[in-house]
Specification:
Layout: E1 11-14, H1 17-22, E2 25-30, H2 41-55, E3 60-65, H3 70-81, E4 85-91, H4 98-105, E5 109-113, H5 115-118, H6 121-129, E6 135-137, H7 145-156, E7 164-169, H8 173-184, E8 190-195, H9 203-208, E9 218-219, H10 233-246, H11 255-267, E10 276-281
Parallel strand pairs: 2-10, 3-4, 3-6, 4-5, 7-8, 7-10, 8-9
Antiparallel strand pairs: 1-2
């Protein structure tokens, strides 16, 4: 089975009066354009996971996520594209929404489990698929060394060097991969992680477990807006203005928080004049449909 997907991920410059005043050049790598549903870091994390499944002759992908999980949808779409079966074990009560509708449409079977059981993913996998030799375990969010390997390739695609790279962090896999890529190319680029969870200091441990070599990087934990998938009027207003000004669609869970951090830090004079900064758009735009009632349009 040929596990391949053409990567189309251009880099666009973001123009803004603030950046001109600060002497900054801000760019965004559009990983959201890789695929309509297997987009952003989702494809990068799945690439080598799927190659491993193929090498082991596994034909049934089993993974985990919440009811609005972009990873669940990406896995469902990837399974359909490459002729595989898929099952999503979903945290929480049995619900329906746009994300799960699309998972179903791509042939994914959904199993809803209570939140306590969900904490024990290996046990759940063994409970439902322990005797199924076709089944292949994929951790929540694609967290894995294979996922980090795929994300490291993002740096291979860069045709320019940057003083800073920024990325939102959920599992730490994407951040670790990019840091590994920076090290592979022996770049002096400073990596900046924006955890989307409250009390995000724990993310350092999540990142470090997938690093090939120890590395220094920045972790900014004050841009969570209350926690995972939490938001407020200030963030929503920023997103509406950003989308209207740039034509680049972003969402409040990941990329919106990361870009807010860049704008806020620029306004506070955090960056040296002349700095080139690259933001990573990690996709996941379907999640916007589950949050549209929060926007006052």
């Amino acid at each position: 089975m040929n596990i391949d997907l053409e990567i189309y991920s251009p880099v666009h410059q973001i123009k803004n009066k603030l950046f001109n005043e600060q002497g900054l050049s801000i760019f965004i790598k559009r990983d959201d354009l890789i695929h309509p549903l297997i987009s952003g870091n989702k494809w990068r994390k799945l690439k080598y996971i799927l190659k491993k499944a193929s090498a082991e002759n596994k034909t049934h992908l089993v993974t985990f996520g919440g009811a609005y999980s972009n990873h669940l949808l990406a896995t469902a779409a990837a399974a359909a594209k490459f002729g595989l079966k898929s099952t999503g074990i979903v945290r929480g009560e049995d619900v329906t929404n746009d994300t799960l509708f699309l998972c179903n449409l791509h042939g994914m079977k959904l199993i809803f489990v209570d939140r306590e059981s969900y904490r024990h993913k290996e046990e759940l996998f063994n409970k439902y698929f322990g005797g199924n030799t076709d089944a292949f375990f994929i951790d929540e969010g694609g967290a894995s060394a294979e996922g980090a390997h795929g994300c490291a390739e993002l740096v291979d695609e860069l045709t320019e060097t940057y003083n800073h790279i920024f990325c939102a962090c959920g599992t730490g896999t994407t951040a670790a991969g990019i840091i590994n890529g920076i090290q592979n190319h022996k770049l002096s680029t400073e990596f900046n992680a924006i955890p989307v969870f409250k009390n995000g200091d724990f993310m350092k441990g999540e990142i470090n477990q997938y690093l090939i070599n120890p590395a220094t990087y920045n972790l900014y934990t004050d841009y969570h807006f209350g926690g995972y998938a939490k938001t407020n009027a200030e963030l929503l207003s920023f997103i509406k203005t950003f989308v209207a000004d740039t034509g680049i669609l972003i969402e409040p869970v990941y990329t919106g928080k990361m870009l807010y951090a860049i704008y806020d830090m620029a306004a506070k004079g955090h960056f040296k004049s002349g700095s080139k900064i690259l933001a990573i758009h990690t996709g996941g735009l379907i999640g916007l449909l589950g949050m549209k009632d929060k926007f006052q349009l």
